[in-house]
Structure of ABC-type quaternary amine transporter:
Amino acid sequence: MGIEFAGVTKRYPNGTVAVDDLSLTVPDGTITVLVGPSGCGKTTSLRMINRMVEPTSGRILLDGTDVATQDPALLRRGIGYVIQHAGLFPHRTVLHNVATVPLLLGWSRARARERAKELLETVGLSAELGARYPAQLSGGQQQRVGVARALAADPPVLLMDEPFSAVDPVVREGLQDELLRLQSRLGKTIVFVTHDIDEAVRLGDRVAILRVGGALAQYGTPADVLRHPVDDFVAGFVGRDRGYRGLSFLSAERVRIDEVPTVPLGDVPGGPTEGWLLAVNAAGEPRGWLPPGSTVDEKLTEGHLVAGGSLYQRGAPIRGALDAALSSPSGLGVVVDAGGEVIGAVTARQVLDVIENHPEGVAHG
Ligand SMILES: Nc1ncnc2c1ncn2[C@@H]1O[C@H](COP(=O)(O)OP(=O)(O)OP(=O)(O)O)[C@@H](O)[C@H]1O
């Protein structure tokens, strides 16, 4: 089932243009990866496919039919959805989690259980895990359950939003292999969101690179975008990451760490605030970001915050610093000490400056 974005724009009520006149076609039975820095509109684009977000203008066609004309509940039955941290129901067993959609579709309990067991096996989990609760599984196992749940009703389309970002790099590679193996058998139409160009190139039949502001920078096969980047932005984005593995060995010692403005949870920040503020708890640990222009006339809680990206622990390989900057909504990668306390922040530019001055580190990638 092919998907077509035709001149799709999304402007949120606060005026943010998250997606700007996006046109692209996702061919049937292929994996298309949306990739780009934090805030470039990847998640918004994905959620417009299953109508969790409605476009301001333009159309999204699923198998030739405008999704806006379809009942959202019916539409979503044909679309599996997998998110970061799997989003499992904590108080349901693994088997029950996977059986959720078949039960909603009115299958008998016995048939839903059978299907759930079969799916656990499909995603490489042993049936015994079915009796456990999500908290009793590793992060990687939880993601597999998330994939199994999304596949339960055998939807032709799968939407995956940074599904593997919260697990460590080794587990992540295992999950990527598993997805490719599954896909070779199932042939779903998959739209996959990530900020990691390595992951995009590995998984995508096609890769769509978005820039902040929600405009499509380039769309093509991985070989295409790596070999023929259309402009400096794409070249920078794919270029620096092509040597990414080499970066694992390059130390981030030389990266300048700047002070980051913080605000303690429980304070009353007032506002409107200037610039991004990093909220910290009593132990000095980062809890999320307060966006610029916020007015909070009550005690600051996590409910006021935008979730942060990955953290960079000082002394770890430089790849982590770049990841932290790219995944942060503020563009500032949060640097913590061994105890998890905030030390400061780095921008992607600062990290890239160091990398560009160490071509040997990149060349080994
Ligand atoms: N409900 C909302 N209201 C207002 N602005 C929003 C809303 N959701 C997202 N945005 C803004 O729209 C832009 C695109 O957000 P989106 O989540 O689609 O980006 P993304 O590329 O998926 O980012 P990330 O990698 O950080 O998840 C950002 O500037 C974001 O702050």
